[in-house]
Amino acid sequence: RELAKEVAAKQGSKDWQAKLLCNMERARWRLEDYPQKHKKYIMVNIPSFHLMAIDEKDTLTMRIGCGTTETKTPLLTSNIKRMDVNPIWIVPRSIIEKDMIHYFSRSYCERRGFYVMDRRTGKELDMNQVHAGLLRDPMYAVVQRGGKGNSLGRLIFRFDNNFSVYLHDTSSQAVFSREDRDVSHGCIRVEKPFELAKFLLHEKNEKLIQRINYSMTADSLKIKKLVVGSVKVEPQIPLFITYYTLYPFAKGVVSYPDVYGYDGVIFEQLKKYL
Predict the structure, then answer these.
(1) Residues 109-159: pLDDT tens digits?
(2) Please, what is the Cα angle at 67 between 62 and 73, to 5 degrees?
(3) Using CA atoms, how far apart are residues 20 and 9, in angstroms rounded to an integer?
């Protein structure tokens, strides 16, 4: 009914009609899995830069940051199976070669918690041995230590996929105050990682929640009995990374920018049948 009202109000706009057709086309695609099959799931919508964690009538919402137009976040369906606290970050080769190699230095590494690891042995190299040529060698990895200041933040959410992407916290919270939040190399930064962690827990174990909170907020992690490294998500929670530039809410249909240009691609195909 609300959709019909929106159509009637905006039927003079060809751009809006094209957007409507594109999203109706997406809605009719047959997928192996979809949110309506589950009582509890997480849905990420790229154009709106938002995440919704839904458990029947309860909904947790938050802003996200996602991939740029050059490093798009993939659309996929998976299951969140684990969350790791204070993860290390193994810097992707593309970031090393296009970016980091130009300003990499010992002082930079010390400030940001980076080190170079020999992939064959897993051992950390003496920074006096590191030079630009070595960084270009795929046998060596640049790693950022876990903890405060890590680019992945203090919490990461793992799920199987073929793109090496994940949901994670961030050390750059200012990104969530922006309207356009296409800022990453493909992964999804979440505004409220601790709230999302609690949502994922099947049993709301208060001691475990306190340990996660301590491990995410303490600088030194001196109280070892409170430190937690990894938590399995059981049962695993379905995750849907979607792309809707129109989305129905209680107050009506909301329109979002076509940030990756996918509407244009779909409409070029639909025009053949109009």
Answers:
(1) 889 999 999 999 999 999 888 888 888 999 999 999 999 999 999 999 999
(2) 90
(3) 13
Question: How far is residue 111 from each of residues 148, 158, 218, measured CA to CA in Å?
Answer: 12, 27, 19
Give Cα separations from 215 to 28, 85, 157, 228 (angstroms).
Answer: 43, 7, 15, 6
Burial grade of 225 (CB within 10 A; 0-12, 13-18, 19 or more):
exposed
d(CA 81, CA 182) in angstroms, rounded, equals 25
Q: Which pLDDT band holds residue 4 (cuts at 50, 70, 90)?
A: very low
Q: What is the mean pLDDT of residues 234-239?
A: 97
164: left (phi over 0), alpha (psi -120 to 50) or beta: left
Q: Token pair of 99, please?
A: 């970016």
> How far is residue 146's CA from residue 86's CA, in Å, rounded to a whole number?
5
Segment (H or E) for 14 = helix 14-28
The structure tokens listed for 62 are 């938050």
Distance CA 46, CA 67 (A): 9
Which value, to the nearest 10 degrees, does the dihedral of the CA atoms of residues 172, 176, 177, 181 take? 100
Contact 189, 182 (CB under 8 A): no
Residue 166 near residue 158, CB atoms below 8 Å? yes
**CA–CA separation, 133 and 147 (whole Å):** 29
DSSP 122: -
Q: d(Cα 242, Cα 72) in Å, to the nearest integer? A: 12
- The token pair at 5 is 């009202």
